[in-house]
Amino acid sequence: MPLIHPLLAGTALVPDSLLRDENETVEPHVLAALTRSLGAATGIWTAILRHDPVNRWYTRLVLSGSVEVWLISWCPGQYTRAHDHGGAFGALSVIQGPVTEIACDADWRPRDWRQHERVASLTFDRNHIHKVGNSGTIPAATIHAYSPPELPMRYAPDAAEQAVEGFLLENALGGAATGDAAGALAVGGGRP
Description:
18% of the residues lie in helices and 28% in strands. Strand 5 (99-104) and strand 6 (110-116) form a beta hairpin. The radius of gyration is 16 Å and the shape is globular. The protein has one domain: Jelly Rolls. The protein has a six-stranded antiparallel sheet, covered by helices on one side. A three-stranded antiparallel sheet has the order 6-5-8, with helices on one face. It is of the alpha+beta class.
């Protein structure tokens, strides 16, 4: 039986085709449409969202046989460790503030960074490795969807994570972290 957040139950925001128990992999463009649809439902996610300046906050919105969906908040300076998604396809939509993404190669080396502004939506394939967080000065929030659901994630080894953080400081933060971003580049970890 699928799990769905009580505020989403009874709405048409999550298509019935994604709420089945069957293990079907959902394509990235469908995941992106889902995260955009949920992101447009501001009355729902604003009632759920919390910003915790100490620990990155997140809650699962949906879990079925084919998809899992998370609402994640990012206070300034909060980041994941560099990670993959265990072979799952994924999508994310920025619903509040900007977030920064550092994309990594298969050997965990940082290769690129992007700032994703509010209403940006992106997809990624099964091999995508990245670090996501808030390098800005205002809180941010994102909605993420993955398929297949609940695959174990891998995290960058410590030495590789230090290289990713150095890349973030040098490139995305212009050489020095400011404000809450100083000394808080690897807040978080764990799922999602």
